[in-house]
Amino acid sequence: MTLQEFNHRYQNLQYRPGAVGWVFKNLLSSPFNILLTFGALYILYLIIPTSLNWLIFDSYWEGESSQDCNFDAACWVFIKARFNTIIYGFYPQEHLWRPNLVLLLLVIGLSFVLIDRFSNKLRLRAGMVMLFAFPFVAFAILHGSLFGVEIFDPIVRTEQWGGLVLTLVLSLGGIVLCFPLGILLALGRQCKTMPVVKYVCIWFIEFWRGVPLITVLFMAAVMLPLLLPEGTEFDKLSRALIGIVLFEAAYIAEVVRGGLQALPKGQYEAADSLNFSYWKQTNLIILPQALKLVIPGIVNTFIALLKDTSLVSIVGMWDLLNSAIGSTRDPNWIGYIIEAYVFAGALYWLLCFSASKYSQRLEKKLSTER
Amino acid sequence: MKENNDKIIKIEGLNKWYGDFHVLKDINFDVSSKEKIVICGPSGSGKSTLIRCINYLESHQQGKIEVNGTILSENPHAIQEVRKEVGMVFQQFNLFPHLTILQNLTLAPTWVQHSSKAEAEERAMYFLERVHIPEQADKYPGQLSGGQQQRVAIARSLCMKPKVMLFDEPTSALDPEMISEVLDVMIELAEEGMTMLVVTHEMGFARKVADCVVFMDGGEIVERNEPEEFFNNPQNERTQLFLQQIIQN
């Protein structure tokens, strides 16, 4: 067989059906590609087995204390032992049924809203309940009182909330509040007939986009109490939440504005010529299309918001990440910081990835183009 | 007084500028009820701007526009009163892409006129029959051809029961084979006695339907005449030139 013949036969391999053809076409089509393929395989060979050994095969699952672990592999005993702290923070151990009940209600409520098997009417109603009733119910259960009326004993002050629960409170509360505010800001910024509204919105957006979230949180936690009249009771959680909402609303506003600008002028003109008032036109024709266009941007902002809540550790709040890392300062568990980061990271990833997957589904479902 | 009542649209001394550019120059123009007027002219002559002023998609700086007894001004109430009586069909159809055809037709009747859902749907299906596409009711605009979309747009306007219909180059964005299906619908509408203002280059349509053809150039009404006279015996030099160019094509 001559070199030419070999070459010819080799090239023909990529037209084979199935996996063989795929491999020769995509991985081994030229000397350079062969080099890249084997180089990449070698790097994976170096990384994957050691990582898997550390994470899973050599890791420690059994036991109760750090005596049961060595530093040669992941010590999941640590996560097991500090699990409640990471999920619930300093919430009193004997009353954990309260956050658990809230999480259960949240899951049930969200599934009614998000699963498209249910009728639109039911989903809309569930959405209304989740938006307007659930936050109060959740607060009443977690805190133990609502509008000063004691419901559960004991009262658990928001300073004791923490872990995943606090992260969810901050991020879901932030999302629910910043979304409508952001839409209003975007509409205000587009407003042609009322220049005062327009410039207030522009400056509001530019201000909050221009400062780092850490600054906002620090101001909310430390400066705000100094500025408020003495005796005003305003817990740190609400102050941080307000800071997050104002900050993220500015981002949402700019994302939504992109959608508003992407709509052809003809849509506004058609709506005008059919005599729709401004708000009807906005709610029935403009926003449904504009928001659909910017679903990726909105979800992007929500995901960023969820992860940005970890900055509240700066003002001494014990969110998911801070609780996980704080657990490694326990004298019994010093040195297990990698496990803390990996576990917290995995939880964040799970939440964000689900949100991203759901948004892709939503986009596909709402698409009415040919 | 009697003559006044007969005029559904009255335009007196209308002037409009885009910055320094004088788009409409001293337009005086009346439309009687049930009259069909075709407006033609070279591009940039202000013909679209003129009909867009009539339902206040464009505002004018000088002069008076009166539609069905309401004088147009910045007053939102006046604008609403005028838009109640005036339907509009656009070059780019401008259907709402996120709604089905039926929803496109029922949205304004239910939310603006507060008709019941059943009544709005009945009316929508009646007008879809009239534009010959009732079978497309549950599709989305993106699934229809241009000609079908434009017929839906006509039906959508008709659902609001307007007294006047404005057409802004309704066939200019269509493939040639779809133009006639839209023109046929417009001819039927004209035969039923709708008051129509049509900006178009379709001279066949003008000959067949128009009571009056208006020729605009450089923001002015240059000539206004009955179709026969207009096409066979144009008075103005610019009209003659324009008609020559159209015929050459």
Task: Kindly describe this structure.
The complex is a heterodimer of chains A (370) and B (249). Chain A has 370 residues and is mainly alpha-helical. Chain A is 71% helix and 1% strand. Chain A has 15 helices and 2 strands. Chain A has a two-stranded antiparallel ribbon with strand order 1-2. In chain A, a hairpin with a 2-residue loop joins strand 1 and strand 2. The longest helix of chain A has 30 residues, at 337-366. The N and C termini of chain A lie far apart (54 Å). In chain B, strand 4 and strand 5 (70-71) form a beta hairpin. Helix content of chain B is 41%, strand content 25%. The model of chain B has no long low-confidence stretch (mean pLDDT 90). The A-B interface holds A 264, 266-267, 269-270, 272-277, 280, 284-285, 288-289, 292, 366, 368-370 and B 55-57, 80, 83-84, 86-88, 90, 92-98, 107-108, 111-112, 140-143, 156-157, 160.
What's the arrangement of secondary structure elements?
The complex is a heterodimer of chains A (370) and B (249).
Chain A: H1 3-12, H2 18-26, H3 31-57, H4 76-88, H5 97-114, H6 120-143, E1 145-146, E2 149-150, H7 163-190, H8 195-210, H9 213-227, H10 236-262, H11 265-273, H12 278-293, H13 295-308, H14 320-327, H15 337-366
Chain B: H1 2-6, E1 7-18, E2 21-32, E3 36-40, H2 47-54, E4 62-67, E5 70-71, H3 76-85, E6 86-89, H4 101-111, H5 117-130, H6 146-158, E7 164-168, H7 176-191, E8 195-199, H8 203-209, E9 212-217, E10 220-225, H9 227-232, H10 237-248
Parallel strand pairs in B: 3-8, 3-9, 6-7, 7-8
Antiparallel strand pairs in B: 1-2, 1-4, 4-5, 9-10
Helix pairs in contact in B: 4-5, 4-6, 5-6, 6-7
Short descriptors:
A: mainly alpha; two-stranded antiparallel sheet; 15 helices; B: 249 residues; alpha/beta; 6-stranded mixed beta sheet; 4-stranded antiparallel beta sheet
Give the CATH H-level superfamily of the largest domain in chain A: MetI-like
Mean pLDDT over the full residue set of chain B: 90
Most extensive chain-chain interface: A-B, 21 and 28 residues
Quantity of strands of chain B, as a count: 10
Helix fraction bin of chain A: over 70%
Main beta sheet of chain A, described? 2 strands, antiparallel
Strand ordering within the main sheet of chain A:
1-2
The coarse overall form of chain A would be globular
With helices defined by DSSP (H or I, 4 residues minimum), what is the helix count of chain A? 15
Cα shape of chain B = globular
Structural class of chain A: mainly alpha
- Supply the number of helical segments of chain B: 10
Structural class of chain B: alpha/beta
Distance between the termini of chain A: 54 Å
